[in-house]
Fold this sequence. Notes:
The protein is an alpha+beta fold. The protein has a domain of 106 residues. It is 24% helix and 31% strand. The structure holds fe (ii) ion. Fe (ii) ion binds next to helix 1.
Amino acid sequence: MHPGLLGSPDHTEVEAADLVRTETGFSFSWSRCNPAASGFGRTDELTRQTTEVSLPFAWRLLIESAATATAVFVICQPVSGELARFWMFVAGRDIDEERATQLAQLHRTITEQDRVVVESQRPRLLPIDITEELHLKGPDAPSLEYRRRLAALTGPE
Ligand SMILES: [Fe+2]
């Protein structure tokens, strides 16, 4: 999905997310190796990645390594059935101007790669009512929780 930027072909196994329900949504975390190009940690270093979802449309991702931390704040505003405004704020601990520019560019690239995939998915709208027969587990647990919580907020489709 994000070759050379996120994840590693040498570390394809993803642990089950540590999912926790919170007052405003839910959070989950896991550890992951990223390529050096991401700058999230050293090559082959396991970074801890924690996402806090504030329902319905905001979340914060915190990526922590031994030497640094990066935070990404995302807010979405639906404009119509198939259009949303999207704001992303990126921050880093103890970073200089060069790293700040690199982080901004990295997230622009990742977001653009995600946009192409998301806009090609069918059905175009996020299905809220997911069936149990799909047996989604492990890394998909946050996605399932998000849909359950959206359904609780919006009611049936
Ligand atoms: Fe992605």
